[in-house]
Specification:
Length: 161
């Protein structure tokens, strides 16, 4: 075997080693991205838990939500019939409306956060679109959207409604 052949074998082994190294780095980067996505999803889930835990710990808000859910198909379900702001005024006291206004505003902030995470491909909201539209409707009914504009929410939902 000549030195030329040995050199060619060495170059082949070096190229193979480089290919394996690049493949390993690409795999590690993929794992890191997946880990970041999981962390983003976890943080969003924790925000949801915190929000609902705060609602559960407030007896007045919890009672107001229980009352509201009698007019919906569950927590994020559609409003039964055509519920108007006037009916909200008739059914709920001023204190209940204020508590629900704050709650739905918090949910809109959460929704805006979820959509920002979706822009970074760390959250997929496609399975929750119906619930998100319902949350938006609740926020409108209770005045939580008055005088405020969430750009991401407007871009995703308002032109469709």
């Amino acid at each position: 075997m000549s030195w030329l052949e040995i050199g060619a074998i060495g170059e082949f082994i070096g190229a193979l080693g480089l290919f394996v190294s690049i493949t390993f780095v690409a795999y590690e980067m993929k794992l890191k991205r997946e880990d970041e996505k999981a962390r983003e999803y976890e943080s969003l889930t924790l925000k949801t838990i915190e929000l609902n835990l705060a609602a559960a710990q407030s007896s007045s808000l919890s009672m107001a939500l229980s009352k509201w859910w009698q007019y919906t198909d569950g927590m994020w379900g559609e409003v039964q019939g055509s519920f108007t702001k006037e009916e909200v005024d008739q059914v709920f006291s001023a204190e209940e409306k204020a508590a629900l206004r704050h709650y739905w505003f918090s949910m809109m902030v959460w929704l805006n956060l979820a959509l920002s995470k979706e822009e970074r491909n760390s959250y997929d909201s496609s399975h929750n679109r119906g619930g998100f539209v319902n949350i938006l409707e609740y926020a409108r009914l209770f005045g939580a959207m008055d005088h405020v504009n969430f750009q991401r929410i407007s871009e995703r939902f308002c032109e469709k409604h």
